[in-house]
Design goal:
Chain lengths: 263, 190
């Protein structure tokens, strides 16, 4: 009869591994292996988990307070960011966007009058136009971030019971309003990929915004299916990444063209 | 709406760092318990907890949104424990070394113990067990603690340590073997 190895006996002690049944059968008929198993178990019983010192219910907050100072971005942002309500932030960006759009339009008209001698075939985008595009890209990027956040929350919400989505619904309405403005501006600037995405996003946001405050599991599932079937989150991520890249390539001000840039 | 981990991670990634607090509050106790069992030292365990959340925060961009945040942060904590245990192994022992030729205190105790002696024996066993645990390598100790204290299967240990199941099993076996060698003399006194 082939006896069990110490390793097999140790695994049997933990009831782990694929050979438990075979080992069990063997142990019923082998006194020697039973004795060796008992010896292993006697030793392992001596190894008792140390009792963990108690931590109170506020322990999580204590840890947070200890680490927050070491999160540099948090320390610099928290003084002003949370103080601005989301709707006000969206509104401010929209106002800024319209302002810069009009300013850019005015500047570009002046620039185009001054640059009548620009060579054909060379990029005709003036610094003012590029700044305008950059502001649009930044604003759209921020808008996509906030929309993505809302859609992710809904996608991951569990739907066993009715869900209170009054906050999410309000955010969806505000985002849909802002979305309309960005879409119109993007149409004027002439960026078809952003226009298409914003068009699709707006439909989803409106769908969420028109829901009752409490969602049944079925309603939630319908929204989640809608988000998933359109692949809207994926599209948002892709366009968001492009937007980020594009905005980094645009000049920050009309007076500071990038190196090698032809005006 | 109760925010789950995935939604909280998405918010933090989008710039709302304050939501990270939610994740810290939700997972601190579990990470502390794990860290204390691994390190058997309150100060080291606290260091593991802090460092784990800081690493998680810095590495949040690399976190796959389909993954489970709890599992991910558990792994980060294990890695940090591994580093600290490995460092501890390379440091000289802080407790006074015993004379290997001196008879062990346990050997001098009578078999039938009155209560104070029984307490002394328990203390002695505890010291021996701790000392035996110190003999394990960082990898053996982590695998053993996960198996013996945390009740994780070999498959789960392998996943948590990102190693093959064979290697995880091997580490547990080596740990058990070493502990048996160290603790065998204590069997009769239990």
């Amino acid at each position: 009869m082939k006896h069990l190895s110490d390793d097999q006996l140790a695994l049997y002690h933990y009831r782990d591994g694929d050979d438990i049944e075979v080992a069990g059968w063997h142990l019923t008929s082998c006194a020697e292996c039973r004795s060796r198993l008992a010896a292993i178990e006697e030793v392992l019983k001596l190894v008792v988990a140390p009792s963990v010192p108690a931590r109170g219910p506020d322990y999580g907050s204590e840890v947070w307070n200890r680490i927050r100072a070491e999160l540099p971005e948090l320390a610099t942002r928290e003084h002003w960011w949370p103080a601005i309500p989301r709707w006000a932030w969206a509104g401010a960006v929209a106002v800024l966007l319209v302002g810069v759009f009009l300013l850019g339009r005015y500047s570009s008209e002046r620039q185009s009058l001054m640059n009548v001698a620009t060579d054909a075939g060379v990029s005709t985008a003036t610094p003012a136009q590029q700044v305008r595009e950059r502001v649009l890209l930044l604003a759209v990027g921020d808008h996509l971030d906030r929309s993505q956040m809302l859609l992710l929350e809904l996608s991951h919400a569990s739907g066993l019971r009715d869900l209170d989505v009054s906050g999410g619904r309000q955010r969806a309405i505000e985002l849909a309003d802002a979305n309309r403005l960005y879409r119109t501006t993007a149409q004027k600037v002439g960026d078809p990929s952003i226009v298409t995405l914003l068009d699709e996003l707006e439909r989803v946001l409106l769908q969420v915004g028109h829901q009752p405050s409490r969602l049944t599991a079925r309603d939630l599932k319908r929204i989640q299916d809608s988000i998933q079937s359109q692949g809207i989150l994926f599209k948002v991520r892709v366009v968001r990444a492009n937007v980020r890249k594009e905005s980094a390539q645009r000049p920050r001000t009309a007076s500071s063209p990038k190196k090698g840039q032809t005006t | 709406m109760e925010m789950d981990d995935a939604a909280a991670v998405a918010r933090v990634r989008s710039g709302d760092e304050d939501t990270f607090r939610l994740l810290v509050e939700r997972h601190s106790q579990i990470i502390f318990r794990l860290a204390f069992r691994m390190m058997e030292n309150e100060q080291d365990a606290e260091e593991v907890v802090q460092e784990t959340f800081l690493r998680a925060y810095r590495g949040l961009d690399g976190f796959e949104s389909r993954a489970n945040f709890g599992t991910w942060i558990y792994r980060i904590a294990l890695n940090r424990c591994y580093d600290l245990l490995a460092q501890r192994k390379s440091r000289p022992m802080m407790q006074p070394q015993e004379d290997p030729d001196a008879p062990a205190a346990i050997d001098q105790l009578p078999t039938k113990n009155p209560s104070p002696e029984r307490r002394l024996l328990s203390q002695e066993i505890e010291v021996r067990v701790r000392s035996a645990m110190e003999q394990l390598t960082a990898g053996e100790r982590i695998a053993f603690v996960l198996r013996h204290y945390e009740g994780r299967s070999i498959e789960e240990i392998a996943r948590a340590l990102n190693v093959r199941p064979g290697l995880a099993k091997n580490r547990v076996h080596r740990a058990v073997k070493k502990l048996r060698q160290e603790l065998q003399p204590l069997r009769a006194f239990r």
